[in-house]
Amino acid sequence: MSGNDVLKVNELCIRVDGQPVVSDLCFHVAAGERVCLLGPSGSGKSLTAGAILGLSPHSVHVDGSVCINGVEVADIRATRRPVQSRSGMVFQDTHSALNPLVSVGTQLREPFMRFHGLSRRAADEAVVTLLRGMQMAHVEEILKRSSAELSGGQRQRICMALALACKPALIVADEPTTALDVLTQNEVLKLLRECTGTADTPALLFISHDIGAACRLCERAVIIDEGRLVESNTLTHIIANPQHRFTRQLVRALHDSAPGRPPFAPDFDAREGLLCTA
User: Fold this and answer.
1) Both 231 and 245 in a single domain?
2) Pfam families given for it (predicted)?
3) 81, 83, 30: which is closest to 52 by C-alpha?
């Protein structure tokens, strides 16, 4: 770990109704970094995301340390956390993330007024600038609509804009592309790559079971299985030399997804999304 870590998770243990689900999980995300938390269904990925975000259900008990921007937050609910320790969030279920009874524009305006101290008019202008910067078409028209009137890809972009508008040091994206078609998945991954992981943008924790998507977006991967850390390294190293059974299955699936082609180029660089460029 380094001194510029935005997120530090140390000896995280999660129990659901008294049963251990995640045990002694440790990893970190540095400022300007994009890291993927990979694991099969039921491995504890989303429970880990909930613990990091302060959104765990009451049936879930969290022990250990979650430190965001130097603030210990493991036992603090999201709404009670200090501003500097709050994280942006992008979820798979965009329907529940957005209020269908309120226009998209109204929902986007609020964080600009709250976290940036802008007037209503200035906040509206900031919203338009943000969405245009995200290459979103027909911005003024979309802002008048409710979330129910938008496509899945549009809703996911709005959720990303909401996360960015809150000025977080960290964005946690939990399976954000799972419910989307292939073309929209590509657009969302491109958007995440453009809006995170630099000196001027939030760090990213990308949670997925898809190593192909991870390779297009992240530099490092933390891999868990049955609630335990089983492998952690750069994606370049993991693809070239997988150690754990589940990791080998992921890499094998990556090979099988492009028969007759190498899964990565000799000069593969996960940070540039160069998977299958050979």
Assistant:
1) yes
2) ABC_tran
3) 81
Helices 104-116, 120-133: inter-axial angle, 10-degree rounding: 110
- pLDDT reading at 274 higher than 70: no
Average pLDDT, the chain: 86
What whole-number distance in Å separates Cα of residue 12 and Cα of residue 23?
6
pLDDT exceeds cutoff 70 at 215: yes
80 and 182 in a common domain: yes
| Residues 152 and 254 placed together within one structural domain of the fold | no
Cβ-Cβ contacts under 8 Å for 185 (sequence gap 6 or more)? 177, 213
pTM flag (> 0.90): no
Q: Which residue has the tokens 């998507």?
A: 213
Q: Could you give the number of structural domains in the chain?
A: 2
Q: Which of 5, 98, 19, 7 is nearest to 54 (CA)?
A: 7
Picking from 219, 211, 271, the residue whose alpha carbon sits closest to that of residue 28 is 219
Domain that holds residue 125: 92-167
Rounded to an integer, what is the distance from CA 102 to the centroid of its chain? Answer: 25
